[in-house]
Predict the structure.
Amino acid sequence: EVPVVESGGGSVQEGESLSLSCIGSSSHEAPMGWFRQVPGKEREAVACITWTGANVYYADSVKGRFTLSRDYAENTLWLQMDGLKPEDTAMYYCGTFDDYCSGLSPVDAWGQGTLVSVFS
């Protein structure tokens, strides 16, 4: 049985909100975060948080609408998504990012992803 890593996806109307969660942690104190992918397109980094949590970086497309946070005690990454738009529709993955978090470069995914669908 494959353990559930990401959860919280769903189908919502434009302007509504969703909260994604991801249980896991990176190794070697690497940055971690969320990225998304639409079939046939390149994956797109959404947000990255440094190991200490001191810095969080967002893609321009989600800045001001999405909030990434980390619960160290629960080993959980959260992605609060507000003001969702149809173009946010994608499979969302959490995972490890490149050492330079600000570069928003995902390295690998931890789970099978959770699907977010936004309709107008």
About this structure: The mean pLDDT is 93. The longest strand covers residues 90-97. The CA atoms of residues 11 and 117 lie 5 Å apart.
